[in-house]
Specification:
By secondary structure, the chain is an all-alpha fold. It has helices spanning 7-20, 33-36, 40-54, 70-83, 85-88, 127-136, 151-181, 186-205, 220-231, 237-241, 250-254, 281-290, 309-323, 343-346, and strands at residues 257-258, 264-265. The chain has 2 domains: 20-205, Cytochrome Bc1 Complex, Chain D, domain 2 (Orthogonal Bundle), CATH 1.10.760.10; 220-353, Cytochrome Bc1 Complex, Chain D, domain 2 (Orthogonal Bundle). The protein is built from 14 helices and 2 strands. A two-stranded antiparallel sheet has the order 1-2. Mean pLDDT is 88; it is low at 335-359. The structure holds heme C (HEC) (2 copies). One heme C binds at residues 104, 115, 230, 235-237, 239-241, 265, 267-268, 275-277, 284, 287-288, 292, 295-298, 300, 314, 318.
Length: 359
């Protein structure tokens, strides 16, 4: 008797199949808070316009890319419900059942803002940025890597994430329209709100940032120059990251910094060994050049326009700092006293990690 004919197996298969359909109420998208505050009739009209252009949970649609077919979005939705929804939520609002206790919080896609992009500060990401993030995860946060999923599943789930994202953006546009017009005029929706959402995505696809100068072979001199730049008043990295890069500054410790999504945030601990935006020199370059959207981390493209090699110096220094623990150096516990240059620091050595400092 083959395994598949075994009665126990059949019973099991039926149970699994039934469990799959046991969800009592069909999933629907929840509206943003701004929508729920509108008068009832406007809410109804707004939701209808939103469904027409950006789809519903039952019939998802990718606004701006009508060539992405229903089967792909369905597949993406299945993957999303299996692997993403517990953190990112049915509507992509970042409010899944396990999200509340996380730092950083899972992304609320609905603003269209993503942190780890290869596009200039303030721009939408490229589709390939999201594919890369889903593949390799965001190290040092709860966002897992999904590189073991089939490539088609990753592509499909990214399309689905994009559909939730643009739906959220259109929802905000419609709220603005209603605030202004006190009605949902279908012509204005089609001619103004929808293009306002799509255009930013079109612009992003053509705006990939390439380094201004080519990546050098890093030496101790790059690290020393990078440290100087990091500690300089001109760039002010230390104001947020601390002199030692651990982010133990007053603002960080007091929780004074907020991100675009309204959550408390802090400057990255660059010594943690896991850079959220990726560990490659190019990843670090892009973080410094482009900044991190939605957070206080500014882009330094303008500040360093006349001295582009300094970005690579900073990359060398960040890599040095982030790898220090891995190579067995122990940073001091607790907040750190002001930076005092020592002889070894001047020669490109490891001031924070000298044996005295580690005790
Ligand atoms: C265990 C929780 C968890 C799961 C499961 C999860 N994520 Fe995330 N995700 C996060 C967190 C936390 C962040 C925010 C990290 C940050 O801000 O640095 C995030 C961020 C993201 C981002 C934003 C990247 C950027 O550049 O801003 C995307 C896109 C994303 N996740 C997609 C997915 C997809 C697709 C899935 C399922 C295949 C998924 N996530 C599953 C927790 C999760
Ligand atoms: C106004 C505060 C501020 C300043 C100034 C600042 N940063 Fe940041 N930086 C941040 C914050 C906040 C983050 C974390 C973003 C996030 O949520 O992932 C960050 C993230 C980073 C990252 C990415 C870390 C990762 O995990 O991938 C790098 C690299 C970085 N900063 C380097 C620098 C350098 C170099 C300078 C100076 C040229 C600098 N920062 C100046 C606030 C700042």
């Amino acid at each position: 008797m083959s395994v598949s004919k075994h009665p126990l197996f059949t019973a099991l298969a039926i149970c699994v199949a039934l469990a799959g359909c046991s969800r009592e109420t069909p999933v629907t998208f929840t509206s943003s808070e701004a929508v729920t505050k509108l008068p009832d009739q406007l809410q109804v009209d707004l939701r209808a316009a939103l469904a027409e252009h950006a789809g519903s949970h039952a019939t998802p649609k990718l606004l701006g890319n009508e060539d992405v077919d229903a089967a792909t979005l369905r597949r993406g939705q299945l993957v999303y419900h299996e692997r993403c929804v517990q953190c990112h939520g049915d509507s992509g609002d970042g409010n899944g059942p396990v999200a509340a206790s996380m730092y950083p919080r899972p992304r609320d896609y609905r603003k269209g803002i993503f942190k780890f992009t290869s596009t200039p500060y303030g721009a939408r990401p490229m589709r390939t940025d999201l594919i890369r993030t889903v593949n390799r995860g965001i190290q040092g946060t709860s966002m897992p890597a999904f590189r073991l999923l089939p490539e088609e599943d990753i592509a499909a789930v990214v399309d689905y994430v994009l559909s939730l994202t643009r739906r959220g953006e259109l929802e905000s546009q419609l709220v603005e329209l209603v605030d202004f017009e006190e009605a949902v005029d279908p012509e204005l929706v089609k001619d103004e709100c929808v293009p306002a959402v799509i255009q930013k995505w079109v612009d992003a696809e053509g705006s990939e940032v390439s380094p201004l100068t080519s990546q050098p072979v890093f030496t101790a001199e790059h690290v020393t120059r990078g440290r100087e730049a990091f500690l300089s008043e001109q760039l002010g990295c230390k104001k947020c990251h601390g002199e030692d890069g651990r982010g133990q500054t007053k603002d960080n410790l007091a929780g004074n910094l907020k991100d675009t999504w309204g959550h408390v945030t802090r400057a990255a601990d660059l010594t943690g060994g896991f850079l959220h935006g990726g560990q490659r020199p190019l990843d670090i370059y892009l973080r410094i050049h482009n900044g991190v959207n939605g957070t206080p981390m500014p882009g330094f493209a303008n500040a360093l326009r006349d001295d582009p090699d300094k970005i690579w110096d900073l990359v060398a220094y960040v890599m040095h700092v982030t790898n220090a623990r891995r190579s067995g150096e122990r940073p001091l516990p607790g907040p750190i006293s002001p930076y005092v240059p020592t002889a070894s620091a001047e020669s490109g050595g490891d001031a924070e990690a000298s044996p005295e400092a580690a005790e």
